[in-house]
Amino acid sequence: MSVVGITVALHWWAAAEVRRNTSELVLLSLGGAAWLIVASNLFPWLGLSVLDDAVERRNIAALVALCGAVIGVAITYAGANLGEGPSYWNNLFSVALGTGGLLCLWILLELSGRVSVSIAEHRDLASGMRLCGFLIATGLILGRAVAGDWHSEAATLRDYWRDGWPAMVLCATALAIERLARPSQARPFPPWLSFGSLPVLFHLGMAIGWLWYLGPWEGKPQ
Q1: What sign for the dihedral angle of Cα 180, 183, 184, 189?
Q2: 13-71 confidence digits (pLDDT tens)
Q3: Domain ranges within the chain, ordered by starting residue
Q4: Is the separation of the CB atoms in 38 and 69 below 8 Å?
Q5: What number of other Cβ atoms are within 10 A of residue 16's Cβ?
């Protein structure tokens, strides 16, 4: 489904040459699929494995969290390929910025909040939902930060910081919520509705509000 989402985004909002040329659209979509596979192989380093946790152990909390991770990466890939540019290498630079930022913030959340323990060991669905929401929201912010017409590496980095800094605020907020909402001896199974759904809505609300504030990216097709 994430690859379908990438394809749809490219079909509507990629560079004019990509939108006119089916072979280039397919090529970038296949590149998105390959990027998702590469990123998924990095997830175990962050404490969650698609094969071990989601498939073999049938851990629903891990499945939810990993779905958020895949969607977040897909959004950063799609965002990096929106707008006009002279070369696919420019797109790759933007993709690396977007996905790299997402993974770095996930690492910070993991090191400080140990969210993978709550998900993989305690099988806490609320924790999985919170991580899912955080990763999708971060993907939206950073994907928007790398979207738009290409000018130069320096301009891309400047825009990335200018439009993507709220992702750091989101990470700090997610960490604060995690420390309050994660499983404990007094509350080993926090209710997913209040400890999962509400933080998800909060994270997504922050991201969507920021995207609304920024408005369309430079070069968005009319």
Answers
A1: positive
A2: 888 888 888 888 999 999 999 999 999 999 999 999 988 888 888 999 999 999 999 99
A3: 2-214
A4: no
A5: 10
